[in-house]
Input
Amino acid sequence: MNPPNKITPVIAGTAVMTLLAIIPVLSLINIFCCAGIIAGGFVGVYTYWKQLQASGKILTSKDGGMIGILCGILSAVFVTGFGVLISLYSDSNPILEIMKGFDEMGFQVPPEITKYIDKFSNEFTEHGFSPTITIFSFISNLILYPLFGSIGAILGVSILNKKSIPKN
Amino acid sequence: MKFTDNTNVDYKLARKVYSVILIFSLGWLMMIFAAPVFLKIGGPFEKISSYIYLFFSNACHQDDGRSFHLFEHSLAVCSRCVWIYAGFAAGTIFYPLKFKINNINAPSIWLLIIPALILFIDVGFDSFGILMNTFFTRSASGLLLGLVLPMFIIPGFVKFFYEINSFFQNKVNA
Output
């Protein structure tokens, strides 16, 4: 019997990672060391583990890690794409909105960041999105998402295998 | 191919994986401290510093009031995150003293759940205004979680790369 394919787990993990990154308020989870991305990797592995249980196979770290990395790469693309789309179709300047939100929440933005925020804010006003932020976000997302996604997946494999292998 | 708890993982491969994780965790920590240092140096380093701050903004709120400062500038992440990453680096350094590098068995899951719970309680109590957390509680709960994470992540990644390596070797030999 062939092992189940990984399309459903990858879609599930990617959906969780992406939704947790783009939905306002929920996206705050990622400020806790990318907890949303770790959760997405875990969900991907959990979905695969459920499928494997039906076919009586063991979850391997190879499959789990691959699911986490794949979910991370796909989410990095989607999150960056959504970011560009939202800023293109929105009239408001997100940088100014974020700054306003920080003010309301009582967060203090370090003065060293303020002048760069002004630069990016001008790019939004000029183009409708910031090319600098988009390129840099895409690169950093391509590092962070597969990294934390694989960590979530590897943790998932450790946890779920402990659950499924009975102690002698 | 079936993997059991008795799988004998190649020591050389495990050492490579461990070295990469160690270098990566130390490099990550150095970047956090480099941001304010580069800002202090100024010139072209100032721009590098701004990109480091921007990179870590995806992973941390970077609230100035909840961050440690170096040369009057905040570190690239908040105090809790600094201690999570510092704990992770320390846990990785001391890992070989407690476990074999080619070990692929994670310890009891409670070792991960308890520090995670302490951290969530610290965050939750503060968020709901029950008990305000302090630099000490944020740092201690972060350090505790960071210290235990390598015990799960190193065996996991050693096993992951062992299985990948075996998979490709089987393909070559077939």
